[in-house]
């Protein structure tokens, strides 16, 4: 006897549900990853037979969702493979919830470093990551988009087993057109990032500063990494630090 267990998220979407779109049908296989926005479902595309990640929002009326969709539509003009940007497929409404169909990737840079027991990346490993990030930044600059939320959890490894350190930039929920950015503008962060200060200032050299912080994080000594997760930073930042 086969017993199927229905696991629901947000009270409206369950494991083994099929999300229908105009282009295909997605079978929900499992859920993984959760934030203030909702959850991410691992789905199987019944037409193309590929695994897809679907970001399911808790509150479809949240105006930030529309901003995220607008940013994803904008970056879709870029070649996701050549420019190292997450591939966005489509925006779907399912059970009155906004669902974003996205490329399935392997793991975040943060997860990878954690799996290595906080062993820092070597120069030969940091080099390719830096090169790919700069390509992504240049591509975003050319279409007038700022990511504004660069951190290790938003840098995903595509397939570490077959393509070591092949990365893509993800999560454009805080993306912003360059034309709307001003020095001194307040940028609010998701609540689960746990900052006592709930905002950050955009600075003129922000892109360079953030890039340098990412490189420092990757190359920090094992002792520095252990100190960082041992309580010298706010507990909520220990798993999803913002740099």
UniProtKB/TrEMBL annotation:
GO BP annotation list: intrinsic apoptotic signaling pathway in response to DNA damage by p53 class mediator; positive regulation of transcription by RNA polymerase II; smoothened signaling pathway
Molecular-function annotations in GO: ATP binding; protein serine/threonine kinase activity; protein tyrosine kinase activity; SMAD binding; transcription coactivator activity; transcription corepressor activity
Domain Protein kinase as annotated: residue spans: 26-243
One cellular component (GO) term of this entry: PML body
Statement: the UniProt record of this protein carries the keyword ATP-binding: yes
InterPro entries to which the protein is assigned, alphabetical: Kinase-like_dom_sf, Prot_kinase_dom, Ser/Thr_kinase_AS, Ser_Thr_dual-spec_kinase
Gene3D superfamilies: Phosphorylase Kinase, domain 1, Transferase(Phosphotransferase) domain 1
A Pfam match: Pkinase
Keyword list, A-Z: ATP-binding, Kinase, Nucleotide-binding, Serine/threonine-protein kinase, Transferase
Transmembrane segments: none
Keyword match ATP-binding: yes
Alphabetical list of PANTHER family matching this protein: DUAL SPECIFICITY PROTEIN KINASE, HOMEODOMAIN-INTERACTING PROTEIN KINASE 2
Name of this protein: Protein kinase domain-containing protein
Organism: Seriola dumerili (Greater amberjack)
């Amino acid at each position: 006897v086969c017993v199927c267990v229905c696991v629901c998220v947000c009270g409206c979407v369950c494991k083994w549900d099929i999300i229908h779109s105009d282009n295909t049908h997605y079978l929900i296989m499992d859920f993984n990853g959760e934030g203030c926005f909702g959850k991410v479902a691992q789905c199987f595309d019944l037409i193309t037979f590929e695994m897809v990640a679907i970001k399911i929002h808790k509150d479809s009326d949240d105006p930030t969702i529309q901003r995220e969709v607008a940013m994803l539509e904008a970056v879709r003009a870029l070649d996701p493979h050549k420019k190292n940007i997450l591939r966005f497929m489509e925006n779907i409404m399912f059970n009155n919830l906004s669902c974003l169909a996205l490329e399935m990737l392997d793991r975040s840079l943060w997860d990878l470093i954690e799996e290595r027991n906080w062993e820092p990346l070597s120069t030969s490993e940091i080099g390719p990551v830096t090169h790919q990030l700069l390509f992504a930044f240049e591509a975003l600059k050319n279409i007038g988009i700022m990511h504004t939320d660069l951190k290790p959890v938003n840098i995903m490894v595509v397939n570490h087993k077959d393509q070591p350190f092949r990365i893509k930039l993800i999560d454009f929920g805080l993306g912003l057109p360059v034309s709307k950015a001003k020095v001194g503008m307040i940028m609010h962060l998701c609540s689960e990032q746990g900052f006592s200060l709930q905002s950050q200032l955009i600075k003129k050299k922000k892109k360079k500063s953030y890039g340098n912080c990412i490189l420092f994080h990757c190359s920090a000594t094992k002792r520095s990494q252990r100190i960082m997760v041992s309580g010298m930073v706010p507990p909520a930042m220990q798993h999803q630090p913002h740099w």
